[in-house]
Write a structure and sequence with these properties.
This is DUF2116 family Zn-ribbon domain-containing protein. It comes from Siansivirga zeaxanthinifaciens CC-SAMT-1. This protein has a domain at about 35-115. The chain is about 35% helix and about 20% strand. The chain contains 3 helices and 5 strands, in the order ααβαββββ. The chain has helices at about 25-35, 35-60, 70-75, and strands at about 65, 85, 90-95, 100-105, 110-115. A 5-stranded antiparallel β-sheet has the order 1-5-4-3-2. The radius of gyration is 23 Å and the shape is rod-shaped.
């Protein structure tokens, strides 16, 4: 009695510990198993990538100032960032990789680029 493929149910020929009849079935099975977590990761990475592009476009000189409305107008999502840096003085910078922003008074933000 032979084993059958976990994805399509066909008989498996070959090694005793084989679970799939082909690479295509193995990939399809694993893609279905990981679909939900992959969507979450993909959507989060897309938002981070969009935020990064917005900060990079608004901050060509590595240090500038912009308004909250300008960030929102470009589609910036303040809920997505990769790290937080707190200075000794207590100022809190939010970073999307090496592009950061510091909330200022009056709905303005200082945009900075972290030195590598």
């Amino acid at each position: 009695m032979g084993k059958s493929c976990l994805e399509c149910g066909d008989n498996i020929v070959g090694r005793v510990d084989k679970k799939f009849c082909s690479d295509a079935c193995r990939n399809a099975y694993n893609n279905n198993v990981n679909k939900d977590s992959k969507n979450l990761i993909r959507n989060t990475n897309n938002r981070l990538r969009k935020n990064y592009r917005i900060l990079e476009a608004l901050n060509p000189d590595q240090k500038t100032k912009t308004s909250r409305s300008k960030l929102i107008e470009n589609g910036f999502d303040f809920n997505y960032f990769t790290s937080i840096y707190t200075t000794k003085a207590g100022a809190i910078y939010y970073f999307v990789y090496d592009q950061g922003y510091l909330p200022l008074e009056g709905d303005f933000y200082a945009l900075v680029k972290r030195e590598s």
